[in-house]
Amino acid sequence: MPELKLPDIDYAALLPMLILFGAACVGVLIEGFVPRSVRNMVQLVLSLAAMVAALVFVIRRAGEVTAENAATIGGAIMIDNMGLFMEGALLVLGLVSLLLFGERTLERGGAFVPHAAVTVGSERDREQAVDSGATEVYPLALFSLGGMLMFVTANDLLTMFVALEVFSLPLYLMCALARRKRLLSQESALKYFLLGAYASAFFLFGVAMIYGFAKGVDFRAIHEAVRGSETSPTLLLIGLALVAIGLLFKIAAAPFHVWTPDVYQGAPTPVTAFMAACTKAAAFGALLRVLYVGFDGAKWHFTPVLGAVAVLTMLVGAVLAVTQTDLKRLLAYSSVANAGYLMVGLLGGNKDGLSSTLFYLVAYGFTVIAAFALVSLVRDADGEATHLSRWAGLGRRSPLFAGIFTFLLLAFAGIPLTSGFMAKFGVFGAAIAGDQTWLVIFGVLTSIVLAFPYLRVVVMMWLSEPGETTPSVSIPGVLTSAVLGIGTVATLLLGVLPGPLLELADQASSFIR
Amino acid sequence: MLTSLWLLIAIPFVSGGLLLLLGRRADRWGHWLGVLAPAVSFVLGLIAFVQLGGRSDKAVEQNLWSFIAVGDLKIDFGLLFDPLSGVFVLLITGVGSLIHLYAVGYMAHDERRRTFFGYFNIFVAAMLLLVLGNNYVMLYLGWEGVGLASYLLISFWFNRPSAATAGKKAFIMNRVGDAGFALAIFLLFKELGTVKYTGDGGVFESVGQLSQGTVLMVGILLLLGACGKSGQFPLQAWLPDAMEGPTPVSALIHAATMVTAGVYLIARSNPIFSANPTLQVIVVSVGAITLLIGCIIGAAKDDIKRVLAWSTVSQIGYMFLGVGLGGGAYALAIIHLLAHGFFKANMFLGAGSVMHGMQDQVDIRRFGGLSKHMKITWLTFMMGWLAIIGIPPLSGYFTKEPIIAAAFERGDWTSWLFGGAALLGAGLTAFYMTRLFVLTFHGPKRWTEGQHPHESPAIMWIPLVLLAIGSVVAGFLMKTSVVTWLNPVFEGVETAHHESVIPHSLINILGIAFTVIGAGLAWMLFQRGTALMPEPAGPVVTAARNNLYTDAFNEVVFEKPGRWLTRALVYVDNKGVDGLVNGLAALVGGGSGRLRRLQTGFVRSYALSMLAGGVLVLGALLAVRLG
After folding, report:
1. For residues B31 and B99, is the Cβ–Cβ distance under 8 A?
2. CB atoms within 10 A of CB A370
3. Is residue A200 part of a domain?
4. For chain B, which residues make up each domain, given as ranges?
5. Bridge partners, A156 (sequence order)
6. Which residue of A245, A249, A320 is in closest CB contact with B595?
7. In-domain check, residue A5
């Protein structure tokens, strides 16, 4: 019997992930042992501390990456500069959105209920509606975030698949936890789960195909097989298409975006913010690695096809945003269109493409978290008032919050002096440098279309008279205020002084194969 | 201090920002913060000035950060402290501080005093940026900043329609000049690839590579900008209307500092203007025409502030004459500018003091005999009056006479033209300023009923006294010292020296004679007062009362066709452009409505669409390979 050789494990490099998973396990224990009255506080502090600690280790690792020490666990995980940047970005964005999870002043007991699966309208459901709320959501978020960290550093397709499931499963559950509009919440969770499982099947089938082609699933083997294999590339292309579909589902590219509006609308708003910022970043991190590290030799094959997907994504996102009447759905379609812009940068196919995509992910993440934080503030007796007509005249009632939201919308639209402008400028510039001008033309055209729904909200807030049904903006608690402040300041700063982050993204834009 | 020049700008900017952002919380102490900021900048500026004097290279440059970097266009947020910007910094912050102090008293009863000081500080910051920038874009940034502050302050009492209109008028006429300035910057960048003044192949070093036509074009466009900001012909009409603003604004912005920005622009760009003789003739002509227009209209106006405003227009005409003459006259124009900053600010504040004591009356026909009731105002105003008309040894004499003399030194027949205009202007200045002074402070009382003139509080007259001292001594102190000091800035300018067409001593005597005759004539005519209402007069006076019909001209030639053009464009916009845009929007909206139906809410149809997408992606990838 051959001797079993255990792979070396570099615990220092894995520490951020391990901290998150460990804290999540502790969080589960807390559910069992800590009294209810302080549970929320304990869980929140624990989660924040875990994230900060993980972030500290990511930063400490930053200067030490070399070609030798990047791969660990036998090459399953690759902590290179790019991976570290994505880990850091996910942790920062996750940290900010987690603050929203802890907000308890807007709603008695917070935005979540303890039991997701209880039949809506039943006795137990009515009981839990006034219950002090669930804190299971913290470990779930930590598991999910840990999975995302693993997702962006996975160095072979199987590890990537495992990570995909690790971060998706808690998300499905979190979607079902909304305190108000329970039915919508449950529906969104079920839809997300079914379609997510469906997309995972695509991904896994693709992995099998690629194994058939490359005789391996790690990216170096795939890379070498793409360059030098005698085998017919049909298997490779089928595999690439199927793997890509699995990832395109997560980034919400058309036509794999269909879940997005329903899920964004139904999920509790803090979870939506978490998904919009972190899931998108994680999925793009993985897609970048797959395409740049594994399949860069097949660039000429996939660029036109994924380009068509990008164009379709931008068109669908922008055009459908025009007729939306619900703010969360509007932001969902905006998120779809932004996936298209990110793909434009990604398909630039050069170092600029990489760094501009990274910048975009961070900039967009901050803006979108702040936007959803604001959505969670406009409420009436039935919870959040997300219908557009309810926002009419909000500028008169609460000029500060309407002003912030206006600023965020302008950032989405890409107006200069906001991070949105710098981000769009970066990805479009990279695409032009990579000879993908046609994508930029569609990008600019759809940006014009997309400006309409954004500005319509601005016009409604400021130029309409407040109606009888215009809700007032709740006074946010410390946590939501912090999120709003961080998101808005980041949106402004990255628009005015983008230099430091651009430089960081530039330094990070290298993979180790 | 020379290593942290940015503080000069940052202090008033931050203070102004605080005053505007803190809101009513700062109402009680805001004005003192407002006074403190320019005063601190003044002290720092003075330190920097002294330090610069101790250096041999006489120019300190600092690049703070990269302001714009797109392709070949690289503009630094850079500052330059040299003798020219040095004297401007001292003028802006020094006179500015005094006027801020005065405004504490003048605006005491205004409920928006804090806002006023906020705008005022922002103005000081922008003006400092204007003179401290080391490239044309920085200058433009400050230029637009002071334009904004000027607009906000002219229409500060915006509930008075006349003030609101005056603000708009100033803004629009300045846009004309600003557009010219912007085009000049574009042209410089296109031709030279840089907008920096000096260093690394800056504009001034490489201006020699340009063709004469280009230099002329750049110069005319810069001049257009300068005319707009400085109220020079043909863009002079906004400046007198700008007197609708509070009096400290008129003193600081529309007399001492902002309106001299045009002179600064030309003096700063001296290598460009010296490179083309035609250009210089144009500048001199603008100066000569404006100085005469200003005098003539000033002699026919009855509003105390408007007379002073037209006097400003006319005096800046002298400065333009100076910078246009080139050579040694650049420095003369600058010292006249500095002296003017003192005596005009002094007289504006004096006018404000008179208005303060006379319940905001501005008609000089309703003053008279105020010398007994407002002794300090009377004496300080007298210093300003003697200074501006050029009685030796007050400041105007030392700064205006050399410009007149320089105008006679052009070496050909134009000497007679421009020299004569300058000399005639001196006589007219003496006439209208004496008329103003006599009608206000001497002669019989012509007050409306219930007037009880009284001296202003100390916080208002202390700045007056300080400025009056400046009016008296500044000219003598500056006539050689500042000229020598400015040498490093203008030394590159070649001076084609011509003999004067008439001897200097004769010019000197003629100048004093014209002044005395003008002043004497006015004293005789007006010492017994004047009618309470304007009486019908000859064609010249009527024309002068109507601003020489320049407003009417603007209305017929620019406003009417402009209105027609807008109407035509609105029509095209409504029918053509909007039709196209609305059509496209309807298309998108309709498409959106149709597409929306695909979002059924059923998971089965979602899965189907994903499957279809998958088949398409797969098919396309294989097709790319086969194709």
Report:
1. no
2. 29
3. yes
4. 276-545, 546-596, 597-627
5. A218
6. A320
7. no
DSSP secondary-structure letter at B73?
E
Phi, psi for residue A195 in degrees, rounded to 5: -70, -35
Q: Which amino acid is at A276?
A: A
Burial status of residue B532 (CB atoms within 10 A of its CB: 0-12, 13-18, 19 or more): exposed
- Comparing alpha-carbon positions, the chain B residue that sits nearest to A239 is B618
pLDDT per residue of chain A (513 residues) written in tens, 0 to 9: 677 778 888 888 899 999 999 999 999 999 989 988 888 899 999 999 999 999 999 999 988 888 888 888 888 999 999 999 999 999 999 999 999 998 888 887 788 888 888 888 888 888 887 777 778 899 999 999 999 999 999 999 999 999 999 999 999 999 999 988 889 999 999 999 999 999 999 999 999 999 999 889 999 999 999 888 677 788 899 999 999 999 999 999 988 999 999 999 999 999 999 999 999 999 999 999 999 999 988 888 889 999 999 999 999 999 999 989 999 999 999 999 999 999 999 998 888 899 999 999 999 999 999 999 999 998 888 888 888 888 888 888 888 999 999 999 999 999 999 999 999 999 999 999 999 999 999 999 999 999 999 999 999 999 888 877 777 777 888 999 999 999 999 999 999 999 899 999 999 888 888
What is residue A387's three-state secondary structure?
Answer: strand
Residues on chain A touching B607 (C-beta within 8 angstroms): 194-195, 198
- Picking from B48, B2, B49, the residue whose alpha carbon sits closest to that of residue B482 is B49
* Assigned token pair, B54: 């101790």
HSE toward the beta carbon, residue B517, CA cutoff 13 A: 12
- Interface pTM (ipTM) of the complex? 0.91
**CB contact B564 to A (< 8 Å):** no
Amino acid at position A16, single letter: P
Secondary structure class of A156 (helix, strand, coil): strand
Q: Determine what percent of chain B falls in helix, strand and coil, rounding each to the nearest 5.
A: 75, 5, 20
Q: How many CA atoms lie within 13 A of B502 on its CB side?
A: 18
Q: How many domains does chain A have?
A: 1
In a domain, A343, yes or no: yes
Instruction: Look at residues B518, B316, B340 and name the one whose alpha carbon lies nearest to residue B433.
Output: B518
pLDDT tens digits for range B372-402: 888 899 999 999 999 998 888 888 888 888 8
For residue B68, count other CB atoms closer than 10 A to its CB: 11
In the prediction, which pLDDT does B40 show?
Answer: 94
For the four alpha carbons of A328, A331, A335 and A337, in that order, the dihedral sign comes to positive
For B624, name the nearest residue in chain A, comparing CA atoms only: A301
The answer for A131, left when phi > 0, alpha when psi is -120 to 50, beta otherwise, is beta
**Contact assignment for A304 to B596 by CB distance below 8 Å:** no
Q: Which residue in this structure is represented by tokens 């490779």? A: A236
Per residue in B437-473, pLDDT (tens digit) is: 988 888 888 888 888 888 888 888 888 899 999 888 8
Per DSSP, helices labelled H in A6-111 are 11-33, 36-61, 81-101
Taking alpha carbons only, the member of A136, A137, A56 closest to residue A100 is A137
Any idea how long chain A is? Answer: 513
Strand boundaries in B230-381, DSSP class E? none
User: Cα dist. A68→A87, A149, A217, B535 in Å?
Assistant: 20, 21, 20, 98
Confirm or reject contact between B601 and chain A (CB < 8 A).
yes
Paired residues of A380 in beta bridges: A383
Q: Do B606 and A195 touch (CB under 8 A)?
A: yes
DSSP assignment letter at A466: P
Report the C-alpha gap between B391 and A346 in whole angstroms: 76
In a domain, A308, yes or no: yes
B346: nearest Cα among B497, B470, B482, B447: B470
Domain of residue A361, residue span: 11-508
Residue B184 and residue A299: Cα distance in Å, rounded?
A: 47
Give the one of B595, B596, B606 whose C-beta lies nearest to A259's C-beta: B606
